[in-house]
Amino acid sequence: MVDLQGQYAKIKEVVDPSIQEVVDSAAFINGPKVHQFQKNLEDYLGVKHVIPCANGTDALQIAMMGLGLEPGDEVITADFTFAATVEVIALLKLTPVLVDVDPVTFNIDIDAIEKAITPKTKAIVPVHLFGLAADMDAIMGLAKKHNLYVIEDNAQGIGADYTHKDGSKTKTGAIGHVASTSFFPSKNLGCYGDGGAIFTNDDDLAHTIRGIVNHGMYKRYHHDVVGVNSRLDSIQAAVLDAKLPHLDDYNATRRHAAKKYTQIFKGHPKITVPTGKSTCDGICDTCDCHVFHQYTLQLEGVDRDALVAHLQANSIPCGVYYPIPLHKQKAYQDERYNEDDFQVTNRLVESVISLPMHTELDDEQIDFITSTVLNFINSNS
Which residues touch 200 (CB under 8 Å, ≥6 apart)? Predict the structure, then answer.
């Protein structure tokens, strides 16, 4: 699904000496490379504060801890996403409230959010799923109306621009009250191990979070808040800082691959290609709302699992993101949920398939992948 070796080969001359510099200095934790990457990422995102941490799941949990959410507080998020989003809500003894997603964008459904708000609701967690910016103007509007926090899950969307109603643009992760991201190796900006970060424009919240990530300490052995041990190590920061100047190019390359996929698949009666907003296909020449962490098709009248097996038999990796809705996962089942409220998610888990998507995809590979998919579907109609 990704070609990290091919990507590394192109930046090896920058990455290797940067890693060696960390080893030579022995500044493995909170060293100069961490602070350098932090500053460069703040500049890139246009956000006041980036607080690096150990991984994306920690980032989301720490963001919620920093907001002071209390057990029993309700947090609304999408049913169709990776489990980490709801996992941290449950770990903090908050009450997850899962809602359906939009059938076009796969992102959290705005009407479903509003219907789910109760006096106990304290926060909304929109996920920029598969790399497409969620409808942040609408979400921030709801949050302001109901006095709620917005915690952006930007693990799949780093580098995407959200275009506001007034035409201005903001990077995803710099819009809500706080945001989290993951630097897992397969992400659009990935390190060579685990890593994550929290973003915010709130000075007081940033101060609180900086203490939380380091055992609640602002001064050594003085524990002012309840914290955790979650720090980005200097080697991973060195890798990320070497990659950051290439992020826009990486995302543009992904959009180019997505455009070629879409040109080939579009119009097929059994395939729905991914899209952006209702006014944008997500891959137009001027569009930057989608960074295609995944390229995900919806199939109709196709044996999805048989197609997966066929692709694997032809040495083509693929993925099903996600095969089970969160509301049906054993850990998160709740008698409050009504299946009628999850019609889109329940359909997507049966019909989606994600094809290889990375910075090293070339036209020959895409032609082979698409012809293999189409040959299967057309021969099994």
Answer: 47, 48, 49, 51, 63, 177, 178, 179, 206, 209
Reference 292, options 358, 373, 209; nearest CA is 358
Q: What is the mean pLDDT of residues 243-269?
A: 96
Which is nearest to 81 in space by CA: 106, 110, 105?
Answer: 106
Residue 146 Cα distances to 78, 108, 112, 150, 159, angstroms:
18, 17, 15, 11, 29
Packing angle, helices 247-265 and 363-379, rounded to 10: 30
* Residue-wise pLDDT tens digits, 185-219: 999 999 999 999 999 999 999 999 999 999 999 99
Q: At CA 183, angle to CA 367 and CA 214, rounded to 5?
A: 175
Q: Are 177 and 200 in contact (CB under 8 A)?
A: yes
Give the C-alpha separation, 369 to 165, whole Å.
37
Whole-prediction pTM value?
0.96
pLDDT confidence bin for 66, thresholds 50/70/90: very high
pLDDT over 90 for what percent of the chain? 95
**Rounded Cα gap, residues 353 and 344, in angstroms:** 15
| Type and span of the H or E element at 219 | strand 217-219
Domains and CATH numbers, the chain: 4-245 (3.40.640.10), 247-379 (3.90.1150.10)
**Which residue in 250, 244, 236 sits closest to 52, CA to CA?**
236
Cα–Cα separations (whole angstroms), residue 185 to 1, 175, 192, 194: 12, 25, 6, 7
Alpha-helix runs per DSSP H in 194-342: 203-212, 234-243, 247-265, 304-313
Residue among 228, 250, 254, 218 nearest 354 (CA): 254
